[in-house]
Amino acid sequence: MTDPATPARPVRRRNCPVCGKGPLDPGARFCSDRCRQVDLGRWLTGAYAIPAEEEPEDDEAPPPSR
Ligand SMILES: [Zn+2]
Fold first, then answer.
1. pTM of the model as a whole
2. What is the mean pLDDT of residues 44-61?
3. CA of 25 to the centre of ligand 1 (A)
4. Can you state the percent helix, strand and coil of the chain, rounding each to 5?
5. Cα(26) to centroid of ligand 1, in Å?
6. Which pLDDT score, from 0 to 100, does residue 20 have?
7. Cα–Cα distances in Å, from 4 out to 7, 8, 26, 55?
8. What is the residue-averaged pLDDT of the chain?
9. Near ion ligand 1, which residues have CB within 5 Å?
10. pLDDT, tens digit, for every residue of 9-39?
11. How far apart are the CA of 54 and the centre of ligand 1, in A?
12. What does the alpha-carbon distance between residue 39 and residue 19 come to, in Å, rounded to a whole number?
């Protein structure tokens, strides 16, 4: 799709974060479905790779002793 009245504004075009191919179509996050799967796999792997040493503090913090 080519717009004849395209503004000179630079369009944010990203490359595929997986294989670096690009530029991607506007709105596309990956160049192909395969790269999407790869990224998803990385995501999961990264999640597993996160060391669980830090204690989550999203729980209610214990009130100061009184
Ligand atoms: Zn790709």
1. 0.49
2. 68
3. 12
4. 25, 0, 75
5. 14
6. 94
7. 9, 11, 17, 56
8. 79
9. 16, 18-19, 21, 31, 35
10. 766 678 999 999 989 988 899 999 999 999 9
11. 34
12. 10
